[in-house]
Amino acid sequence: MAHSDVRAVLALGVDTAAPKLLAAVARHVNGSGGSPDELTDTDLAERFGWTLTELDEQDMQRVLTGLRLSSVRDALLRVEGYLESHGAVRPSERDWRLYGLAQDALKEQSPDE
Q: What value, to the nearest 5°, has the Cα angle with vertex 31 and ends 26 and 33?
């Protein structure tokens, strides 16, 4: 996969992630849940140095979902870091937007709370 394709995928961000997956990533980041399988796949790929071309040959939709979720996780971690450090490093507006969408997804997944 060309670098421009990766940038295009990551630019899509959470807008194409299902609310259930978004909520799962949020629970993973806040420590109340495990990592979604798609995110674990991406983490393993990164750890073992697999290329996107190798992954592309397996299941491209799963690869793209994993990349999106990885981007979302990074944004949520930046916001969490900001909140825990009392504002030491300010996240971007996109990070805040993703954080808000993740909070909404959590509420949708747990309407009783």
A: 70
Cβ–Cβ < 8 Å for 47, 103:
no
Query: What is the spatial distance between Cα 61 and Cα 55, in angstroms, rounded to a whole number?
Result: 10
Q: What is the pTM of this model?
A: 0.72
Q: CA torsion sign, 27 to 30 to 34 to 37?
A: positive
Alpha carbon dihedral 9, 11, 16, 17, in 10-degree steps, equals: 90
pLDDT per residue as tens digits for the range 78-89: 999 999 998 888
CA 19 – CA 2 distance, rounded (Å): 28
∠ at Cα 45 (3, 76), nearest 5°?
Answer: 75
